[in-house]
Every structure is written in C-alpha cells, then in structure tokens.
Amino acid sequence: xxxxxxxxxxxxxxxxxxxxxxxxxxxxxxxxxxxxxxxxxxxxxxxxxxxxxxxxxxxxxxxxxxxxxxxxxxxxxxxxxxxxxxxxxxxxxxxxxxxxxxxxxxxxxxxxxxxxxxxxxxxxxxxxxxxxxxxxxxxxxxxxxxxxxxxxxxxxxxxxxxxxxxxxxxxxxxxxxxxxxxxxxxxxxxxxxxxxxx
Length: 198
Ligand SMILES: [Zn+2]
Ligand SMILES: [Zn+2]
Fold this sequence. Notes:
49% of the residues lie in helices and 10% in strands. By secondary structure, the chain is mainly alpha-helical. The chain has two domains: 5-114, no CATH class; 118-177, no CATH class. Helix 1 (5-17) runs antiparallel to helix 5 (87-114) and helix 2 runs antiparallel to helix 3. Bound molecules: zinc ion (ZN) (2 copies).
C-alpha cells in the first residue's frame, strides 16, 4: 500500500501521544520485568532494540532520537534500581522510551511536510447511539485553530447524557496531505493527445 508522508506522521504522532506505549506488548513487559529481577541489563536492552526497530518501521527513514550508549545504560540502570511495586512501572518505562524515540522523527516529518501541503485537523466523532446535541455540535473535521475556538476538545459528564455515562466522543488529531483524493488521472494520462503538431 502506498503510504504518504502524512501516514508516517500520523503513525509517529499516535506513538508520541500513547500513554501506555502503542508498540509495547504484554510479553515485552513480562520479559523486561523478568530481566529487571534477574539484574540482566542485556535482557532489557534487547526489548529496547525491539522497540527501536518498531518505531523505525513507522518513521519513513526520519532519524529517531539518537540515544548514546551511556544514556541507554542510565535508563536501564534506573529501571533495575527502581522500586518497582506496580506492573505499570515497566510498561510506562517502555512507553516513555518509545515516545522519546518517535518525537524527533515526527518533528522532522512535520517540518518537511509543511512545505508539501501537510494538513493537521481535529476530528471529533460521536460514539454510541445517544450522543447529545451539545456533542453533535462539536463533531466533524476542524482546523486546529477553530477546534480550540469552538471547544471541540471539551467533554462533559454523565448528566448531559441523561445519566447514562459521560461523553464518549472520539477526538483525535488527523494528518493528511492536501492533495489527498484530488488527483485526476485524466489530467496526466490524456496529456499526449494534446501534443502540438510538428
Ligand atoms: Zn454529549
Ligand atoms: Zn460526546
């Protein structure tokens, strides 16, 4: 499948905003937790390498954060010495590493994309059958500036939905190229018919 620059930026964006780590699997968390308890830095390093490869595969060649060996060693050391009382600590550790890797690649992509018609939009979609009018008024595709001005990011509590649970609208950032779906194959395909006669 052909991927646009916007597709890669979208993937990197999802990684940078995912609090639990989009590419962090349960088996990865278990492996790292085991390595931590065995004081096995290489076991933790292997998981970090896997995450690096996972983020790189989404990054369209943009440079990920270039951690030095020393920085990686410090992170691994922190995890091995951390007072880990909750499973979520390991997961958050991996999620943060993944976000840090993706951030500079995303920023490079956005800078490059700005010159090529990259567009950022806020998309709010109703979920469930009983979305209230207040929410529906805020649903749709918005320019980020308008989204802020019209409160598209705002949610409200259960009372506005007849007490049947709060706002469940899906609200997200969407990246696309401004020529998406607008290329007309006939424009290029038919051009030879208009060659000037010699
Ligand atoms: Zn609502
Ligand atoms: Zn809602």
